[in-house]
Amino acid sequence: MGFLSEALGRVAPSATVGITQKAREMARAGRDVIALSAGEPDFDTPLHVRQAAIEAMNAGKTRYTNVDGIPELKEAVAAKFRRDNGLEVTAADCFVSSGGKQIIFNALMATLNPGDEVVVPVPYWVSYPEIVRLCGAEPVFAVADASTGFKLTPEVLERAITPATKWLILNTPSNPSGAAYTADELKNLAAVLLRHEHVHILTDDIYEVLVYDGGTFATIAQVEPALQARTLTMNGVSKSHAMTGWRIGYCTGPRQLLGAMTKLQSQSTTNPSSISQWAAVAALEGPQDFLAEWREVFQNRRDLVVAGLTADTGLDCLTPEGAFYVFPSCQRLLGKTSAGGTRLATDEEFVLALLEETGVALVHGMAFGLPGHFRLSYAASNAELEEAVRRIQAFCGGIS
Q1: In which residue ranges of the chain is CATH 3.40.640.10 found?
Q2: What is the model's pLDDT at position 18?
Q3: Each residue of 59-94: pLDDT tens digit?
């Protein structure tokens, strides 16, 4: 054990990866599994993006690039932030990495010291607190449960901030809850942050294009320009263009921070994949009309799932405003026994019993910091979702 680092000992493995891997192993063993545990669009990467990658390969664009991204992609990223988010930035204010997770890791690794604190709203994406701990700092959890629509309130944010706070991490629309902050809600949080000049904001906007019911996406540096100088606005093409495997994330933020992130990346992965970068240029500069169709498909799937999960199941499920997750409460079913004889003391035992007895793979709420819930990703076909909902209903109906 002494061979491994103390830093690694502070980090827990990803629960979403663990459940997804278990589901894959069951499927390989011949089980009928419906995996709704991973957050990955089920659409193909748009054709024009794939063609751009092929053209880049054929043109010999397969060499090392600038550490923080090719100029063409940084220009496209800056144009995207100006066009979609009202952020007046140039390519010099932008940075590209191998996925959004690397941007978060780079930013926190480049800025955190032992004793620093990072405010993380609960429920959170599983990697936020683990990256903070890996950097030697402490996550401070600010609960934003179903009573507030899974949204952080100004009062809770105010109580979480201390002199040691270095960052607040915001994620809208949210993984795992699907909660999407309105411009007014962000403005209210910004009012708190304006009083605490030592706090920087990392906003994870990776689900930006997936806001439903005619809602409008907003990001915090857009609604409060006075915060832009201490905000890192992160995004990527994984969810917006079904490019999870291409591994391209991008951001805009203070140039001093971007310089530090570049220094760190130069000694870790160096540049992102050159081919993926050229594909991302096509993604950001090419047609975006398909997004409206994708959004409609996801909204219909959301409605299908929410209706099914709240149909006399004992589950309580808010209707999310964005992303492609629902985060129901199974609290009323805990302490009981499944039809297969499993005592359901925790949300983890609930999802493991569901997987074993029905083949439906979900992720337990404790993995996201909020026990008594589970996350279901509806980035799957309608047929799969309908069958999954039927199995979940039958499972819940057999609990006594």
Answers
A1: 61-285
A2: 80
A3: 999 999 999 999 999 999 999 999 999 999 999 999
Reading the block at residue 383, the tokens are 């047929």
Alpha helices in the chain (DSSP H): 6-9, 15-28, 47-58, 71-85, 100-109, 127-134, 154-160, 183-194, 220-223, 255-266, 274-285, 290-309, 347-358, 382-397
Strand 336-337, strand 325-326: pairing: unpaired
8 Å CB contact between 233 and 221:
yes
Residue 1 has pLDDT above 60, yes or no: no
Residue 234 token pair: 């992160």
SS3 content of the chain, % helix, strand, coil (to 5): 45, 15, 40
Structure tokens at 338: 């499944």
DSSP state of 346: S
What CATH class does 6-44+290-397 carry? alpha beta
The pair of three-digit structure tokens given for residue 122, joined into one six-digit string: 């609960």
**Tens of pLDDT, residues 275-292:** 999 999 999 999 999 999
Q: Which fold has domain 61-285?
A: Aspartate Aminotransferase; domain 2 (3.40.640)
Whole-structure pTM value = 0.95
